[in-house]
């Protein structure tokens, strides 16, 4: 480790992408606080600016490039160390390091955060010795088969929900997806280590824990599968709600569904990314299930967990997707009637199987047309499903307060993950409140306390 005497240790960090990145930022905060750094909320006040990035779609990286220029500009020539962390660091390593216009100082991939103090020190030392083109860039984008950060207790901002990664990485190599390359292979944390952290979270006042993993239900540790893990977590008395994301449809044995059905603390909502309703496209995506398999799984889930809410992810305009393929997606959406859906236009990513084997041949205008009609259909379905909540009573957990513009509003969620607004009254964060639903839109329900 390079030893430096450096008093400029104020760090600004910004996070993009999925919940795993939000959690990783909490790990980064913990690691840097221990090393004597402090955090500031404004980029202008920082000596070091970190962007924890996402590489899942094209626009994600353009946004980050723009932010890097903005951060440099707001320092008006004064020195600021800029580091790019996360999935872009592994995905775009060469471009990031060699792009002179960006002129970033270092990059660190998702498995290298324990080395952050060292990487920052390296940049700072170099800045003193070298200038301009001679300056070396620090980097560590190695992926690990073992790193789970099980020994780092994240520095969480507080609140009602705590994220907790129980596994990292992905072995599936869906042809469109960059994650197996940016995050490496699957690895899981010991169950007793997870349970100990959940217990501590409960003692610290968190009401809900959301177990995270790129394929959270592929969790496996020395004979313990995800069903075993979530069952053990549900026995922790101090925590009241348990959620998990993002699961893969291939790992839903009945054992897991039974555990979810049996334990009142495990929320009755499953995110089940389908990606496409066309067998031809599912095969080209390498998703390992057919439309029929997926529909069978949905029926099994609904049979074992009555009243379960389902959400999904869909990609439109994947390579060679025809109108007929897209119609298959629409018909699947009509058949399943997901409670909500995240929809994406296919975005080709460097290094993926699809970028090597297929052509990104669906015109942008067609992708747009398809996503617009898919969203319109889903909005109709969500609204219909939400209307069925009107006049019914539900218990919600208050997770957030309104903003400046609506300070008297609270936001809570039902067990099945519906977002509910509530006039604040005497209620506050972390409270369970019984409400009657009086109005709904496609995205949110309005409740009154009863
Ligand atoms: N592991 C999860 C998904 C993680 S990525 C799973 O397998 O279900 C989150 C979502 O981003 C994916 O479900 C997919 O819908 C979307 N996505 C991933 N790669 C994409 C790409 N190249 N273009 C558009 N959307 C993509
Ligand atoms: Fe990407 Fe597929 Fe892995 Fe999900 S399962 S992270 S979509 S490769
Ligand atoms: Fe993005 Fe990496 Fe998450 S690519 S979606 S930050 S796993």
Describe the structure.
By secondary structure, the chain is an alpha/beta fold. The chain folds into 4 domains: 10-140, Methylthiotransferase, N-terminal domain (Rossmann fold), CATH 3.40.50.12160; 158-267, Transcription Regulator spoIIAA (2-Layer Sandwich), CATH 3.30.750.210; 296-386, Transcription Regulator spoIIAA (2-Layer Sandwich), CATH 3.30.750; 393-449, Nucleic acid-binding proteins (OB fold (Dihydrolipoamide Acetyltransferase, E2P), Beta Barrel), CATH 2.40.50. It has 14 helices and 21 strands. The strands form 6 sheets. Strands 2-1-3-4-5-6 form a 6-stranded parallel beta sheet, sandwiched between helices. A 5-stranded mixed beta barrel has the order 17-18-19-21-20. It is globular. Mean pLDDT is 94; it is low at 1-5. The structure holds S-adenosyl-L-homocysteine, iron/sulfur cluster and FE3-S4 cluster. Iron/sulfur cluster (SF4) is lined by residues 170, 172-174, 177, 179-180, 214-215, 248.
């Amino acid at each position: 480790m390079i030893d430096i005497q450096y008093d400029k240790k104020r760090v600004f960090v910004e996070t993009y992408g999925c919940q795993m990145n939000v959690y990783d930022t909490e790990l980064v905060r913990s690691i840097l606080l221990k090393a004597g750094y402090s955090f500031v909320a404004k980029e202008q006040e920082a000596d070091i600016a970190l962007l924890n990035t996402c590489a899942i779609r094209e626009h994600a990286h353009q946004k980050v490039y723009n932010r890097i220029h903005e951060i440099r500009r707001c320092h008006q020539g004064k020195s600021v160390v800029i580091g790019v962390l996360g999935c872009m660091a592994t995905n775009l390593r060469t471009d990031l390091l060699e792009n002179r216009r960006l002129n970033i100082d270092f990059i660190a991939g998702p498995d290298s955060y324990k080395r952050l103090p060292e990487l920052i020190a390296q940049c700072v030392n170099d800045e003193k010795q070298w200038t301009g083109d001679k300056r070396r860039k620090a980097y560590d984008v190695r992926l690990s088969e073992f790193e789970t950060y099980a020994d780092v207790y994240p520095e969480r901002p507080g609140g009602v929900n705590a994220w907790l990664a129980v596994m990292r990485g992905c072995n599936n190599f869906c042809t469109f997806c960059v994650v197996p390359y940016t995050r490496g292979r699957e690895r899981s944390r010991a169950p007793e280590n997870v349970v100990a952290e959940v217990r501590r979270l409960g003692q610290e006042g968190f009401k809900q824990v959301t177990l995270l993993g790129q394929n959270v239900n592929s969790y496996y540790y020395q004979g313990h599968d995800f069903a075993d893990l979530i069952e053990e977590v549900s026995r922790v008395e101090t925590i009241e709600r348990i959620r998990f994301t993002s699961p893969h449809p291939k790992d839903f044995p009945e054992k897991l569904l039974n555990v979810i059905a049996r334990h009142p603390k495990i929320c009755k909502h499953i995110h089940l990314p389908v990606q496409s309703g066309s067998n031809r496209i599912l095969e080209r995506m390498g998703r390992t299930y057919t439309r029929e398999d997926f529909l069978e799984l949905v029926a099994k889930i609904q049979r074992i967990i009555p009243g379960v809410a389902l959400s999904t992810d869909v990609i439109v305009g994947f390579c060679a997707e025809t109108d007929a393929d897209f119609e298959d997606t629409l018909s699947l959406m009509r058949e399943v009637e997901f409670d909500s859906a995240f929809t994406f236009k296919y975005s080709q990513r460097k290094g993926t199987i699809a970028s090597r084997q297929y052509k990104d041949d669906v015109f942008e205008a067609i992708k747009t047309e398809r996503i617009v009609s898919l969203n319109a259909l889903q909005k109709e379905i969500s609204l219909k499903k939400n209307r069925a909540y009107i006049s019914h009573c539900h218990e919600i957990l208050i997770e957030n307060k309104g903003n400046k513009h609506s300070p008297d509003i609270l936001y809570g969620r039902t067990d099945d993950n519906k977002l509910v607004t509530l006039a604040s009254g005497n209620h506050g964060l972390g409270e369970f409140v019984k409400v009657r639903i009086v109005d709904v839109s496609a995205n949110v329900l309005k409740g009154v306390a009863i």
